[in-house]
Amino acid sequence: GVKQMIVAINKMDEKSVNWSQPRYDEIVKETSSFVKKIGYNPEKINFVPISGWAGDNMLEKSTNLGWYKGVTLLEALDQITEPKRPTDKPLRVPLQDVYKIGGIGTVPVGRVETGILKPGMIVTFAPAALSTEVKSVEMHHVALPEAVPGDNVGFNVKNLSVKDIRRGMVAGDSKNVPPQETESFNAQVIILNHPGTIHAGYAPVLDCHTAHIACKFTEILSKVDRRTGQAVEEV
């Protein structure tokens, strides 16, 4: 889940707020109570008042917020510890789209979630179970020797048309735990708000990365503590 958080309190310039410290303090108090309930320590979170309209306290300190002694939004972002990119895990690239480009061929586009994508690799697309060679990898029209997690890339593939692969499919290294189709899986589900009851047989639409597909809950195994992830009640 989310390990680090910044709370940016926007629209401090709005007429009813007018850069008010009491209104800022009120929002900090309410938000702190909420984030504490879901397992975060408010003392480790920067609550940054800003005005996106005027740019106040985003890049530089603002005279309109003279009472605020904390960091700017940019400084808060600079304090975030960059997470380790999961390059050691098997390659997974959920496809956002597939293009046919004249003179080049079929170019799937997506973000590398795990692993490393390189030209010359043989990739497998699931659930279609189609494999082919990657001829080139590009990001912002610049050829790359490799793409790592977080990179949004296009990669040219051999002998596949735009009709063979589509948005929602996942590309992986055919030689290192390639992605496969599955009929069932276990999931941890967080229910934010629901008007009815959720039970075995409940049929929601699942959005997983770029996939959008109907599924069905066949069995509810347990209820878990949202702070720790530990089971608190077997169903």
UniProtKB/TrEMBL annotation:
Top-level taxonomic group: Eukaryota
Residue ranges of domain GTP-eEF1A C-terminal in the record: 184-233
Record-level GO cellular component terms: cytoplasm
Subcellular location(s) per record: Cytoplasm
Keywords, comma-separated and alphabetical: Cytoplasm, Elongation factor, GTP-binding, Nucleotide-binding, Protein biosynthesis
Domain Tr-type G, residue spans: 2-81
GO MF annotation, one: translation elongation factor activity
Location of the Translation elongation factor EFTu-like domain: 105-170
Matching InterPro entries: EFTu-like_2 (IPR004161), GTP-eEF1A_C (IPR054696), P-loop_NTPase (IPR027417), T_Tr_GTP-bd_dom (IPR000795), TRAFAC_GTPase_members (IPR050100), Transl_B-barrel_sf (IPR009000)
Pfam families associated with the record: GTP-eEF1A_C, GTP_EFTU, GTP_EFTU_D2
Official protein name in the record: Elongation factor 1 alpha
Species, as recorded: Craterium minutum
Gene (UniProt): EF1A
